[in-house]
Design a protein that fits this description.
The complex is a heterodimer. By secondary structure, chain A is an all-alpha fold. Chain A is built from 5 helices and no strands. In chain B, 31% of the residues lie in helices and 28% in strands. In chain B, β1 and β2 form a beta hairpin. The chains are: A mainly alpha, B alpha+beta.
């Protein structure tokens, strides 16, 4: 049986198809990354706003202002002051903000990686 | 593997880091239990004595603006807000969360305005005060320090 020889253009066509699929995938990842980053930015804005609102509503800011207004006297009342600060600390607001910051950093990292991928593929083309 | 190599190995360093993280987690957890217990104890006394603290024997209310139902657990070591009623030695303060707390003033309570110490007679309804104190079993805060402050602006 004669050996089957593939056509000469087959290699080029396969590589072209692979490159085309990689480019398409990189573009999809890039636009998803942009969307995720924008959503993270909005999420961060709202979460920080909520955290600041929680600081005011819980009177944490008022107790912190005592440290600056009467630093010498606060030494005498450090126990009551530290308990008040711990009781009024808006833990939920801080946690949500930290999660939003983490999500933004991860999405920025993914965006940069996908931007590099698209640049490399465009350069190869 | 001898002991010296083991001590200098990554496994040993990982064990130390793991122990440090475990200790930190346990300390933070214990701090949370400590704070939560004190807060829950004051909240319990606050709820039990709510009607007594906010209604006098004749049945009139001291600026009642809502009960503790649905609110977060109140802290018992301080308060910040506007004075809504004064009936010495008791003062009722309403915080930005619309929760009213009762303060008990005695001879040891230090009342300050700017850099001066003032008397309790200078306190008026509507004044914004920041209070440090200790909770008692009646759901009140025994004030140790009261500072008159300007009303904070709503920055939102």
């Amino acid at each position: 049986m004669d050996k089957l020889k593939p056509p000469k253009e087959l290699r080029g066509k396969i590589l072209f198809s692979i490159n085309k699929e990689e480019t398409r995938r990189a573009k999809v990842y890039f636009f998803v990354s942009i969307t995720t980053t924008l959503a993270s930015v909005f999420g961060l804005i709202f979460s920080v706003r909520y955290m600041i609102q929680s600081f005011y509503q819980s009177s944490f800011g008022s107790f912190i202002s005592l440290i600056f207004s009467d630093p010498n006297i606060m030494v005498s009342y450090w126990k009551e002051l530290s308990m008040s600060l711990l009781e009024t600390l808006p833990i939920l607001g801080i946690t949500i903000s930290l999660i939003a910051v983490g999500a933004l950093l991860v999405s920025i990292r993914t965006l940069v990686k996908n931007t590099r991928g698209i640049s490399l593929l465009s350069f190869n083309n | 593997m001898n002991i010296k190599n083991f001590i200098q190995s990554r496994v040993f360093r990982g064990i130390l880091i793991g122990l440090a993280i475990a200790v930190a987690i346990l300390v933070i957890f214990q701090a949370g239990v400590f704070i939560g217990y004190r807060k829950a104890t004051f909240g319990h006394h606050f709820g039990d004595n709510f009607e007594r603290n906010f209604k006098d024997p004749k049945g009139m209310s001291f600026g009642f603006r809502g009960g503790p139902a649905g609110m977060g657990m109140p802290g018992g070591h301080g308060a910040a807000g506007k004075i809504v009623s004064i009936a010495l030695p008791l003062i009722v303060v309403a915080g930005p969360d619309n929760l009213e707390k009762t303060l008990v003033i005695d001879e040891d309570t230090e009342i300050r305005e700017f850099q001066n110490t003032i008397t309790k007679d200078k306190l008026q309804v509507g004044d914004f005060i920041i209070v440090l104190g200790t909770p008692n079993e009646a759901g009140e805060i025994e004030a140790k320090l009261i500072r008159l402050a300007p009303v904070p602006q709503d920055n939102l």
